[in-house]
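Subject: Sanity check before I submit

Could someone independently write out the C-alpha cells for this chain? I want to compare against mine line by line before I put it in a report. The sequence has 171 residues.
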Amino acid sequence: MSAPSSLKDIYVDEMKDLWSANDQMTKAIKSLADHVGDKKLKQMLEASVSGIQEHVTTLKSLIEEAGGEVSKEHCKGMAGLVKEAQKHAIEEAPEDEELKAVVVIAQYQRMSHYGLAGFGSAASYANTLGMKDASTKLKEIVKSIYQADEYSSQLGERTAKLAAKHAKQAA
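---
Independent answer below. Compare away.
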C-alpha cells in the first residue's frame, strides 16, 4: 500500500482497515460466545456478530462507491486486541462464570471502542468530502455500536455486582 495522497485515500484506507478489524472481531466474538455460560451475554455476543457482518457489507459498498479497490487491509490494531481478548477471556479466564463474564465484556468493549474510533473518523471524512449518504450510513453504524456498548456496560455492571456479592459471601 502506498501513502495516501488525499483525504479520500485516507477515507478508503480507514474503511479497508475497518473491514479487516470487523472480520477479526467477528471471529473473536464467536469464540468468546462459545466460552461463556451467562445466557444474556451469549445472546448479546451472538447478536453482535450479525450486526458486525452488516457493517462489513456497508463498508464494502462504501469502498466501491468511493472508487476504491474493494479489498481489506490487515488491521494490526484489532489483531492485538483479539490476541488480548483470547488471552484474558479464554486462555487465562477465571473459572468462576461471573468473573469470566466480567472479563469477556471488558474485552468485547475494547474491541468495540476501536471500531467506534474508526467508524467515527470515516463518517467525519465522508462528511467533509461531501459524501452525505456515506456519512449518514457510517453515523448509523456508530449509533448501533454505542447502543451495543451501553447494553454490554449494563450486563457488565450486573455481573460485577453478582461477582462482588459472591466474593463477600465466600470471605
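---
OP: Matches mine. For the report I'm noting this point. The mean pLDDT is 94.
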